[in-house]
């Protein structure tokens, strides 16, 4: 047979579109032509494949070989197509059965010796192969990652000879059995380590229960970072689909998705991070910190120290839950449903309001410092909490009720109420959900409208107050939002204490 077809997968963001590798042999002067919009690494596969076939003891056809990677308008890069190209040539030349290639997809880079090297982005390809109803053959180093896609038949090999023997029927490769040794949940830092700060812990509980964004403000050393790092341990465990989304992003970003499977990510970029580092980018778009924090927590310490233009790019993903990276040749959509937790000092020196009078900042310096944060960004943060300095006690023993397990149980109960009522956390309610699930009595609605008018709060801020109040009601297992819930939610808006 002079024509063979092998199925593989490309990588576009966190998607894995199907690529059909077509190999055709014709009479004429020996040559090898590769078409289908291949980039440099794919073009170089011609030499890798030739050497791998010859060193494995197969014949490289002395004919005119045409290789087509379809669809033709999809850019292909990386060495992930090496194995598919080699199998296509072997099948087209009759050295393996072409019929055996049906119903399976192949990924893998070839060494000159014929050994299979791992590639990145295997999990998205595995999920797509499962959706298409095909099996997947990958290098053994990628097999455990591919097996995260439950229900998918995975074959693992270390050399081209093994793969050829499998497709020729001589020595079938058994389906890979997941080891499961790396899927142990590591313990999160415990909330019991934080001394005092009852109001801040209350804010953490509310933020976790409703997936609300949170801003801590206070002098240095009061535990803002310590509090933020405890938030992932309060959140409910990831569902399987959510865990697969997180693992797929880590796979695309060349990180091991098995290392912390299936835990929520906690990302803490430095304040010197650029815009592309935060939201993603590059000539070949890669996920940024907000995508790596998908289904988890993004912690921005020293918030005003970030470049203002960098912070402004957070506004869209905070609302939509995704980010679109547009380039001349690519337009890639990355998920970014993260929970933002930020921390800042009240002034440049950090000691504004300190009883000891240590602050030496002028009003202009304080205004410039706070002016680095735009109103629209602060408006998208539901909870604004002040973390005050408390008396130092090196031997203080936290109460048993302050540990993460107890708080996480309250959070889980509130989240179950929200899932049963609306199918999502309160922070993700749209306008229709607000009308349906955050209805107020006529008196409470007038009271809230007057309060928002007095404090000059935007309509977006009013909606977020309603969402927080709904979470407070859920924590008390209350079907209706009461005046006390609105009053507490209002306290978490900036400037409300002064009003």
Automatic annotation (TrEMBL):
Residues 210-391 form the AAA+ ATPase domain. One of its GO terms (molecular function) is peptidase activity. GO terms for biological process: proteolysis. Pfam families: ChlI (PF13541), Mg_chelatase (PF01078), Mg_chelatase_C (PF13335). The lineage of its organism: Bacteria, Pseudomonadati, Pseudomonadota, Gammaproteobacteria, Pseudomonadales. Keywords: ATP-binding, Hydrolase, Nucleotide-binding, Protease. It comes from Stutzerimonas nitrititolerans. Belongs to the Mg-chelatase subunits D/I family. ComM subfamily. InterPro entries: AAA+_ATPase, CHLI-like, MCM_dom, Mg_chelat-rel, Mg_chelat-rel_C, Mg_chelatse_chII-like_cat_dom, P-loop_NTPase, Ribosomal_Su5_D2-typ_SF. Residues 260-286 are annotated as: Disordered. PANTHER family: COMPETENCE PROTEIN COMM, MAGNESIUM-CHELATASE SUBUNIT CHLI. This is ATP-dependent protease. It comes from the Bacteria.
């Amino acid at each position: 047979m002079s024509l063979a077809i092998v199925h593989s997968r490309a990588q576009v963001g966190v998607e894995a579109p199907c690529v059909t590798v077509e190999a055709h042999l014709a009479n004429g002067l020996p040559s090898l032509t590769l078409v289908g919009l291949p980039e440099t690494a794919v073009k170089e596969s011609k030499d890798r494949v030739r050497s791998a076939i010859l060193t494995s003891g197969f014949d490289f056809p002395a004919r005119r070989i045409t290789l087509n990677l379809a669809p033709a308008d999809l850019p292909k890069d990386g060495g992930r197509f090496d194995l598919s190209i080699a199998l296509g040539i072997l099948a087209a030349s009759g050295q393996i059965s072409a019929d055996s290639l049906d119903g399976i997809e192949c990924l893998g880079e070839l060494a000159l010796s014929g050994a299979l090297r791992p590639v990145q982005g295997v999990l998205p390809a595995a999920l797509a192969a499962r959706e298409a109803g095909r099996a997947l053959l990958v290098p053994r180093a990628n097999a455990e990652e591919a097996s995260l896609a439950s229900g998918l038949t995975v074959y693992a090999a270390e050399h081209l000879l093994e793969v050829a023997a499998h497709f020729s029927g001589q020595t079938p490769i058994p389906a890979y059995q997941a080891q499961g040794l790396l899927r142990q949940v590591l313990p999160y830092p415990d909330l019991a380590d934080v001394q005092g700060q009852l109001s801040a812990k209350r804010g953490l509980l509310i933020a976790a229960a409703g997936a609300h964004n949170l801003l801590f403000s206070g002098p240095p050393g009061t535990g803002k970072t310590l509090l933020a790092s405890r938030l992932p341990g309060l959140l409910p465990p990831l569902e399987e689909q959510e865990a697969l989304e997180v693992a797929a992003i880590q796979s695309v970003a060349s990180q091991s998705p098995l290392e912390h499977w299936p835990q929520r990510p906690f990302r803490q970029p430095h304040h010197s991070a650029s815009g592309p580092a935060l939201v993603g980018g590059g000539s070949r778009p890669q996920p940024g910190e907000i995508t790596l924090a998908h289904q988890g927590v993004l912690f921005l310490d020293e918030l005003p120290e970030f470049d203002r233009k960098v912070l402004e790019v957070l506004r869209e993903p905070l609302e939509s839950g995704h980010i679109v990276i547009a380039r001349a040749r690519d337009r890639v959509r990355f998920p970014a449903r993260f929970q933002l937790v930020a921390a800042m000092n009240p002034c440049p020196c950090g000691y504004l309001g300190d009883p000891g009078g240590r602050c030496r900042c002028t009003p202009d310096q304080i205004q410039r410092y706070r002016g680095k944060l735009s109103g629209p960004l602060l408006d998208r943060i539901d909870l604004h909490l002040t973390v005050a300095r408390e008396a130092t006690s090196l031997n203080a023993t936290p109460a048993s009720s302050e540990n993460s397990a107890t708080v996480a149980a309250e959070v889980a109960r509130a989240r179950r109420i929200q899932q049963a009522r609306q199918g999502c956390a309160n922070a993700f309610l749209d306008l229709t959900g607000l009308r349906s699930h955050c209805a107020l009595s006529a008196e409470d609605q007038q009271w809230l409208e007057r309060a928002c008018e007095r404090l000059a709060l935007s309509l977006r801020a009013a909606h977020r107050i309603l969402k927080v109040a709904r979470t407070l009601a859920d924590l008390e297992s209350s079907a209706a939002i009461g005046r006390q819930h609105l009053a507490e939610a209002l306290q978490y808006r900036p400037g409300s204490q002064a009003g």
